[in-house]
Design brief:
By secondary structure, the protein is α/β, with parallel strands linked by helices. The chain has a domain at 65-156: Nucleotidyltransferase, domain 5, CATH 3.30.420.270. Helix content is 33%, strand content 15%. The protein is built from 4 helices and 5 strands; from the N terminus they run αβββαβαβα. It has helices at residues 20-36, 97-112, 129-142, 152-156; strands spanning 65-69, 75-78, 84-88, 118-123, 146-149. Strands 3-2-1-4-5 form a 5-stranded mixed sheet, covered by helices on one side. Strand 1 and strand 2 form a beta hairpin. The radius of gyration is 32 Å and the shape is rod-shaped. The N and C termini lie far apart (121 Å).
Length: 157
């Protein structure tokens, strides 16, 4: 008599996927990106007032400070008699210490006169946007919220 081996049928299990190692890899990637990412400082929120379309009935006694932002990064102030004074020339410096000092002085003079400190900004078409943001941050640091952007004719006129 020959022996016949009875073939054993393999158990019919559903094939499974072990995802525990996948979860470990996902957590490691998450930790890696959290550790290596840099937190970028957001720009200061500026509570500025936009000018109205109609001029006010009473002109301000204190004339507005006129700031010129040039295409090469220079920031200048225009005086009462038309002279232009260079405040900041290094476009890599973001803090603008000279301008901030003058803005603080302008704000204190306006507060002494019980008026709002007014500032007009003229931006050259070739100026970098970051330089405008630096000036707006300096204005926010001085507490000046009355800001108007002006064109070339208003600035020179």
């Amino acid at each position: 008599m020959a022996r016949h081996k009875k073939l054993q049928s393999p158990e019919e299990d559903e094939p499974g996927l072990d995802i525990s190692s996948l979860i470990d890899v996902c957590f490691l990637l998450l930790i890696y990106f959290l550790v290596t990412s840099q937190i970028v400082k957001k720009e200061q929120e500026l509570s500025t007032s936009l000018p109205s379309t109609a001029p006010s009935e009473t002109p301000p006694e204190l004339s507005p400070m006129l700031i010129l932002i040039e295409g090469n990064g220079n920031i200048s102030l225009k005086g009462e008699v038309g002279d232009v004074e260079l405040m900041e020339s290094d476009s890599d410096v973001r803090e603008l210490p000279n301008l901030s000092q003058r803005l603080d002085l302008h704000k204190s003079v306006a507060d002494t006169a019980s008026q709002k400190a007014l500032v007009q900004i003229r931006v050259d078409g070739d100026a970098v946007q970051q330089r405008v943001i630096d000036v707006l941050n300096a204005l926010a640091g001085a507490g000046i919220t009355e800001i108007t952007f002006t064109d070339f004719q208003d600035f020179d006129g």
